[in-house]
Structure prediction request, 112 residues.
Amino acid sequence: MTTSTALGRLLPATLLATGLTIAAAALGGLTAGAQPREWDIEVYDACVAQQNWHDAIANVQGLTYCCLKSGGVADTHGYCSAPPAEAVSSTPPTRSPAPKVPVAPQPAAPVG
Prediction:
């Protein structure tokens, strides 16, 4: 088997695995709406330090894996960023009406 044949068989499988990883991350992000997501950069750095960088495809897969594992958002090139901030409501908070406080009647002014 030649090198080009081996790479020709490996490339589609690798691209499929990367696509499935990114799709799973996107779906996982949709279900985790109740909990705010945070990107733990220390977990990302430790994961990247442990990866085996033997080729460009493994590089993208490793970066994507570390990004998702640490709570980040990965793109198709392996770049990682923090998840978007939670949306701020555009409607102002509702205010309750002021409580009614009883007021003593004012004495009538003297006539005269």
Remarks:
- Confidence is low (pLDDT under 50) at residues 29-33.
- DSSP finds three helices and two strands in the chain.
